[in-house]
Amino acid sequence: MTATEQPFDADTPPARPLTITELAELAGVSTATVSKVVNGRSEVAPETRALVEGLIRRHGYRRQRRRVSPAALVEVVIHALGGDYPVEIIKGVGQVARQHNLAVVISDAPDRETPGRGWIEGVLSRRPSGVIGVFSGLTDDQREQLVTRDIPIVLVDPSGDPGPGFPSVGAGNWSGGLSATRHLLDLGHRRIAIITGPDWALPSRARLDGYRTALDLAGVAADPELIGSGDFLIEGGRAQAHRLLRLPKPPTAIFACNDGQATGVYRAAHELGLRIPHDLSVVGFDDLPSVEWMNPPLTTVRQPLCEMAVAATGMLMKLVGGEPLPQSRVELGTDLIIRGSTARPAH
Amino acid sequence: MTATEQPFDADTPPARPLTITELAELAGVSTATVSKVVNGRSEVAPETRALVEGLIRRHGYRRQRRRVSPAALVEVVIHALGGDYPVEIIKGVGQVARQHNLAVVISDAPDRETPGRGWIEGVLSRRPSGVIGVFSGLTDDQREQLVTRDIPIVLVDPSGDPGPGFPSVGAGNWSGGLSATRHLLDLGHRRIAIITGPDWALPSRARLDGYRTALDLAGVAADPELIGSGDFLIEGGRAQAHRLLRLPKPPTAIFACNDGQATGVYRAAHELGLRIPHDLSVVGFDDLPSVEWMNPPLTTVRQPLCEMAVAATGMLMKLVGGEPLPQSRVELGTDLIIRGSTARPAH
């Protein structure tokens, strides 16, 4: 009798993770059903799936004998595809995946916070070698489902807190906010506005804190009226810029917190007949390839998205190979790229 | 004795396609080697690979007994990733693939004309259900390699002539060129320049022909000086715009043939201190999501890239299911989207 075949008593769960046979016995379903749940197949009633997932969560799950080898795929799960942000990530993942003879699968997750439910079943059924996630974080359930199937995941630019020890790659958001604001202060601006991302997005909070600290170090009082709450989208940037530029004492410079919102600020300035940088200085964040072609070219904080994806995929390959990570959180530096959208204030 | 086991005489090749065993006998190599070539594995000497591929091309290849089932993947092979053009295609493919429970793999091909050699081995080893190609066309060898492995392919917006009967989806390029130029004529422009794509790109040739016909129908003589040869890239558009706008008799309007080149025209106008549309009208082609945010918003010919990818993937699913295609070439219509970059000429 081998270890996997030893008799199992439902009343005294053993400390070691359970096999499919043991889970089936405990749940009172067939091994085929447990296998379907484990492999993310769809033909299982939701209640049965929940029952089996619950048991896996409680007791753990361990593959029987032959280890199923993963498919030669890396899966990139990304919030709503659009613009060149995702392209930069896909390029970086592709560079590393190619070296490991892995193909890159793209899944479009419905929103940026956490990917939808359908997503995880897709991943389980495809059984990729690993997952690169571009979203806030995983629910505990989703995390457990990946862990029990030995599918590692690394997050890139997570908008939330992925939790301690969760592997992720971000950028120096606070330093970026600091250097963007310092650049404007150095040019002589004193009424400097900021348009933030959503409140729950930690990269936005870090950029805002960098902005506040730069003002404070320069002895400039932060004016709450000059802090606009955006959503990281073009339209939000445009709406906030309209509000700011119509204040009795409008700002002479706006730090837009991402390139999309800077695009919205350009539109608002165009609509109001203001010239950039003569009447208004603008700084973005990201340095997407397209912003070099805005007129004037956008001064922005470069967040090295492609290199971040390269670093994340390198970490993922270590995890796939069973190697420990020297550190679970990696932050790459940001650089201020000065172009034509910033100048001394006119008055 | 079954059909696959019948004796085989190397001097009189049979009319039916050969099995791996027969190909191995004929080539004087092991069946394992033939199998590696058929499955796109890398550990085969180039000469041996060429020998086996040559025999497959001459005699055909037929799977022995058990049919290998394809992976639940659609592979998108695309020229250098960048900007939002590929994102539109990936979105469209994803919409249809999801309905068929297929994941989308992205491969980055080195150039737009024909994807590089390494690409095809990747596809053969992954054995996707089908391929969506965004490039000019396949070499005869590549085509044969996919046909013998039962991997169907459909091209989207091919820049070359894919050959008769090759499944592809394009747009009404000629009509788009015609309507762009007519719009400028209707506004009163007579000195209308065009910046074309590369000479070998058929979509560009069709747009140029539409431009010529519109001028001809309006009784306006085409001035060869006003035809600029571009490359479909931003920099090319900018360089040609500088040349055109410095002519003794500069154009009052430019049809830029794609949105990238229109972006280059905007930059040139900005550099020369010209206002769009007051001093210069500009029309693009594609209607990528970002051009709505150019200042002023770009008037352009909408090429429905996402819908084209949806149509191509629908055709691919038919081919995967063994259904015949009602037509191998599908063209979707283009629409002129009038925004703020076109107006009556000032003088």
From TrEMBL, chains A, B:
Keywords, comma-separated and alphabetical: DNA-binding, Transcription, Transcription regulation
Domain HTH cro/C1-type: 18-48
Residues covered by the HTH lacI-type domain: 18-72
Gene3D superfamilies cross-referenced by the UniProt entry: 3.40.50.2300, lambda repressor-like DNA-binding domains (1.10.260.40)
InterPro entries: Cro/C1-type_HTH, HTH_LacI, LacI/GalR-like_sensor, Lambda_DNA-bd_dom_sf, Peripla_BP_I
SMART domains: HTH_LACI
Pfam families tied to this protein: LacI (PF00356), Peripla_BP_3 (PF13377)
Domain of life: Bacteria
Coiled-coil annotated spans: none
Molecular function (Gene Ontology), one example: DNA binding
Protein's recorded name: LacI family DNA-binding transcriptional regulator
